[in-house]
């Protein structure tokens, strides 16, 4: 399944360069364009860390005794909201805010820029929200944060708002909704998305590999042609990007880390097969000898220098391949769906969501902002002015969106987004990621077998969940 080469607009170049992995932590996404008061006491005190609050967002939004909504939006009261996200070099955030304020003259939105490093942003949010700080009302969240923030009591449950306003969540890509869902409830609205792709040298390869076995064969066969040295590049360093790559292999072979009930399911024949295939590639002679040190920047640098036939990376790299100022392979790169395993092709889900601080004094107005930014009009602005991939399937049929970035008009790219696989949705995801990074690194280095890796991960993740 071939994706024809498309040159992206300057807007998507600015946006996607930062979207290195949309993974979170001080890892794959260090330069992601991460996202972005009054005198009354907070509506609700946050729940104790580690405890899910079944009434998050409900009691705060409705006074159950008199049935009146608190701070109802549109009642004429002038309200100021603070919206937080990281650096946005595209200017789309300013356009979003202006459009929202024009439609909601009683609401003023102040933008607060957070650190570009997503790990630093997360730590700052946790520090403020756990202390009951209400200076931020709405904020953008990495797709791996919602479960953690929900269980800690930092954010509002959104189901009441969604049901009241008749929002059809089936119109969003399923994986993006799953990322914002924890304990059967939705805590974050999908804002924009991202998914892994297979890049290949079109001057060497006519048709990209359909399966991982075909990739192994072709990488070995074509390595060395047209000045290349390697057959394949991936993110195998011990960091978040390694987990994303592993989730893609696991999805391709029908494995998962956790099921919907938070049971650990990683110790399965499918997971063993996936990790064995990943090990086969990482230990082959067609990858760099230091592949265990490769992250996204190392991958795109080597590929742009013409060193490899194939590379797994995020959509941001496509614009770079066509930039004559940094690419030695201009005009010779196409991209495709990642190869399939026994269960099909799977791409790791990245992207950002939008949440409401549970300490916000204006949850109704905050919801109006969230609804606008993550709805059709807001996402269209983010796509056209920011180059970010929408989470609403229908926007890929919009002519203006397609013209803003030809990638958005590519049906197979859209299929990749539709089938993107989220990382484990868990309130202790950072711990799960650390466990997986260590055991996967040991397996790729040949220190343990795939079976030992899944057994170790199962034992450690179960212990972490039991704490």
Please explain how this structure is put together.
GO terms for molecular function: maltose binding. Pfam families: SBP_bac_1. InterPro entries: SBP (IPR006059). Keywords: Signal, Transport. This is ABC transporter substrate-binding protein. The chain is of the alpha+beta class and 467 residues long. It folds into two domains: 200 residues, D-Maltodextrin-Binding Protein, domain 2; 255 residues, Periplasmic binding protein-like II (D-Maltodextrin-Binding Protein, domain 2, 3-Layer(aba) Sandwich), CATH 3.40.190.10. The protein contains 17 helices and 18 strands. Strands 4, 5, 6, 9, 16, 17 and 18 form a seven-stranded mixed beta sheet that branches. The chain has a five-stranded mixed beta sheet with strand order 1-13-10-12-11, with helices on both faces. It has a two-stranded antiparallel ribbon with strand order 2-3. The N terminus is likely disordered.
| Mean pLDDT level | 86
How much strand content do the residues show? 15-25%
Query: What is the level 1 CATH name of the largest domain?
Result: Alpha Beta
Q: What percent of the residues sit in helical stretches (DSSP H or I)?
A: 25-40%
Structural class: alpha+beta
What number of structural domains do the residues give?
2
Number of strands: 18
Q: What is the global morphology? A: globular
CATH-level-2 architecture of the largest domain: 3-Layer(aba) Sandwich
The helix tally amounts to 17
pLDDT < 50 stretches = 1-72
InterPro entries: SBP
Protein name: ABC transporter substrate-binding protein
Signal peptide: 1-28
Organism: Paenalkalicoccus suaedae
